[in-house]
Amino acid sequence: MAIEKPADLARGVGPITVRARGRAYATALFNNVFPLFLVLLLWEIVGRLEVIHVALFPPVTEIFAKMWELTVEGIFVRDVLHSLWRLLFSVLLAMILGTVVGLFMGTNRFVEAMTIPPLNFFLSIPGIAVFPIVILWFGLTEKTIIVTLAFEASLTICLNTWSGVKGVDSALINAGRALGATGPRLFYRVLVPASLPAIITGYRLGFSRAWRILVAGEMLASIGSGIGFRIFEARSFLASDVMYSGVIIIGVLGFLLERVVLRSLEIATVQRWGMVREL
To answer: What's the count of helices (H) and strands (E) in the chain, helices before strands?
Structure first.
């Protein structure tokens, strides 16, 4: 019989709970992996039967073989590293800019009144439509992609940060004032922590927006590297296996970055502090 530790008892975590949680994680993994496995199996069957011409719809095994070949040659590794560098640098700039502007909007009515109309205007414009304008300014360079991504992601982060600050419960603000928190102290001890769930959600949405625009930007800018560029180049040679490989890599990278980086940030902050419930 397993002996429960005092720390486990204090948290309400015992051997049964640990086993139950393990089964829950295993079930969740199966529920996510099994449907994907069925899709890939069906894809392989359709590709082998050549229901659709193999040049347009190659079997999954051929796609993964080409993916492995390009990875060993270093082509996909270089493309992934370049794409990730553009994405992470752009999102970092967007997080700084969007958070600062959003906090000012949430705490200053004049800044709020002057910023909301242009913010809503730019949010209604698809990010890909901004690329031709930025290309006129900076040409077909890295700067074009970084500026566009940072601008587009900062819009979403700014909106969520502003919403988070405006959504802080007035009772919480009054309680902070009653305890002597005023001015800057009220700002960084009450308003910022209380709005963190919305701010981090803005980071996740801004990242997703930037990731989608990045691929399109690499296709338009044609700067010689990146997953988007590799897919667009493969189209010219009707290399469908390379195109599908690039699309799969985009999906896998986006999923891992969102779950590993941004989800870890959420767990280490607002979930750890009890501001959001554990999933």
So the answer is: 13, 0
What is the C-alpha separation between 229 and 93, in angstroms, rounded? Answer: 23
Distance CA 139, CA 160 (A): 31
**Cα–Cα nearest to 204, from 95, 118, 125:** 95
The Cα 61–Cα 45 span in angstroms is 10
pLDDT value at residue 11: 47
pLDDT tens digits, one per residue of 58-82: 888 888 888 888 888 888 888 888 8
Closest CA to 157 of 193, 82, 105, 85: 105
Provide the CA 41 distance to its chain's centre, in angstroms.
28
What pTM, to 2 d.p., does this model score?
A: 0.74
Cα gap 203→36, rounded to integer Å = 28
Between CA 208 and CA 267 the distance in angstroms is 18
Q: Is residue 192 a contact partner of residue 161, using CB atoms and an 8 Å limit?
A: no
Is the pLDDT reported for residue 6 higher than 50? no
Helix spans in 50-74 (H): 60-72
Query: What phi, psi does 97 have (nearest 5°)?
Result: -65, -50
Provide the pLDDT for residue 12: 46
